[in-house]
Amino acid sequence: MGVTIHDVARAAGVSVASASRALSGRRKVTPEIAERVSRAAAELGYQPNAVAKALRDRTTGTIGMIVPGIGNPFFTTIVEAVEHQLQETGRDLLLCASQYRPDVEARRLETLLARRVDGLIISPCDIEASVPAVLNAARRVPLVQVDRHIEGGGADWVGVDDDSALAQAVGHVAAGGARTVTFVGSRLMNSSARSRLSGFERAAARAGVNATAPLLGEFTLEWGIEAGRLLLLDGETMPDAVVCGNDEIAVGLVRALRAGGVRVPDDMSVVGFDDVGHATMCDPPLTTVRQPVEEMAAEAVRLLGQVRVSDPRPAQRIAIAPRLVVRETSRPVAAGGANGTEMGRGTA
Amino acid sequence: MGVTIHDVARAAGVSVASASRALSGRRKVTPEIAERVSRAAAELGYQPNAVAKALRDRTTGTIGMIVPGIGNPFFTTIVEAVEHQLQETGRDLLLCASQYRPDVEARRLETLLARRVDGLIISPCDIEASVPAVLNAARRVPLVQVDRHIEGGGADWVGVDDDSALAQAVGHVAAGGARTVTFVGSRLMNSSARSRLSGFERAAARAGVNATAPLLGEFTLEWGIEAGRLLLLDGETMPDAVVCGNDEIAVGLVRALRAGGVRVPDDMSVVGFDDVGHATMCDPPLTTVRQPVEEMAAEAVRLLGQVRVSDPRPAQRIAIAPRLVVRETSRPVAAGGANGTEMGRGTA
DNA sequence: GTGAAAGCGCTAACAA
DNA sequence: TTGTTAGCGCTTTCAC
């Protein structure tokens, strides 16, 4: 346990400096020394101590990431994509979940900073309460927000273009003949909830459809079911279509509607949001807006490399346009012939 | 950027040693010094450097975890549970995905070791190919396997009791009247695939039901669908029930069967395995064996604290008994009255 | 091209 | 109780 570069140097009969140079290969050494050192290292089973290197280099090769919850398949997918991106450059991911609680989030941010991560990727759980901790962290280390973000635009962000997303969703159901559309989403404590609702309202106005009062709860299956029941309750004012804030809501909604005798998509079209995990699993397969997760992750990591804490520049906001994936919970367009599109990506 | 304990000491007019002692609170200092130091620290915005501390203490407060893929909801759930456990003791999680590839796994193991994690929790992707890397890692640092494990019992393990699980599943369908049962699982490159199949065979023998040739593919929805088609193909030898290696397979299977005109559970009972995420989402809700994920995580972390690399003791194997959750894809027992049980845990 | 030595930030002997 | 100092393992000047 614990063979150091000194041991290697001694075994190879050279100074630690030469051993270091030979091992890193970043500076010239005679071939003979290079040979002796690498042989000694192999024989002793030498493994460089990344902690010492980090102290010396003042960089850890580690990126911290905080998401509200790993249980949510959407965040999982982002984490996976980020992990994948980082691996390309030999960096590792220090992962934390804030459990949707700003106090936990702030604490985790502190420990990540203490561990001297080289950068931070975060999806802040609360649009207001997360502000101080996120801003403070951004002052110390490159930080980019992904998906959710704090209000005020004080830090870089990459996410989906909710306006484009909702325009596609609303446009699609309108093309299928819907005249009255309801949005079922989450209460407005996070940025996604807000921008999706406002995106919906703009899109409805533009498409000339009648937007009824939105139903706002949680990003959960349970809320989807409850929203479905709410819709069934006052049956006379049923919309022709429902656009949901995420797939979980949509799946719950579809189930509740069918249980209540409403046929989907014949009586009502339902569109989800995310297209990770659940969408293909459910029956019938969900028409939904696919989040460009892989691109978002790549963009976030790229952005991270550009941020310089020392010389702050105006915060960047990168909104990536998503794509509507038409499956079987929405009515085909009037002309006919809308058919399900297969997912390109497996569920791992 | 970079106020050190020296800065704090100077500002407080004391030595670094006193500053360190005051800050850690682990040794006696006069109240006055304690006061001056903590005030100085607060004013300067001092934040201890965990890297330096780690180098000095030869312990990082960090646990490495490697799972085959974060995309798989089962592994996600374990990761979440482990993260939760670790947080209780102020430790952080360094997360990696092996992408189901032994070579990637070995490489990630190396970097985790280089980062001097205090321990390792791993679900080795391949029962054979993962052996050398896992054994080597176990020699350097406390290591416990969770869920999957390598052959030969060279390292501690905690997972589900597959024998008990399959006995419950087979017993349940047998009680519902099934005489012929098929197992649909994964090819035998990982321990779970193997022990579930053998558990199934033992359980079938014990329950006196006729086990037809197992169908072995992947742990995916797609394979479930394909297996369903296979079953439909030679319709005359259809089993009364199918027990699946995980929920994804089960969901795919149910969908394929229904598409082929087979009613579930009236014509055939289907039982899944895992009960994370998908099981409640699908329609009808899946009868499945619930993995005791939270307990597994707690046990793994506890075990990690007991392992001493210096004095190896016989490897522990902890198999936790799971519970069958009866929902709506299986026929009620002859006497009648099997009804769905709600999940206690949300999908975050 | 190679070696000696300083120093990254911290804590724990060891002295005073 | 407090201060001085060594040293965790590494890389990189700075001389030679």
Automatic annotation (TrEMBL), chains A, B:
SMART domains: HTH_LACI (SM00354)
Database matches in Pfam families: LacI, Peripla_BP_3
GO terms of molecular function: DNA binding
Domain HTH lacI-type intervals: 3-57
Source superkingdom: Bacteria
Record key words, sorted: DNA-binding, Transcription, Transcription regulation
Organism: Microtetraspora malaysiensis
CDD domains membership: HTH_LacI (cd01392), PBP1_LacI_sugar_binding-like (cd06267)
Lineage: Bacteria, Bacillati, Actinomycetota, Actinomycetes, Streptosporangiales
Protein name according to UniProt: LacI family DNA-binding transcriptional regulator
InterPro entries: HTH_LacI, LacI/GalR-like_sensor, Lambda_DNA-bd_dom_sf, Peripla_BP_I
PROSITE patterns associated with the record: HTH_LACI_1 (PS00356), HTH_LACI_2 (PS50932)
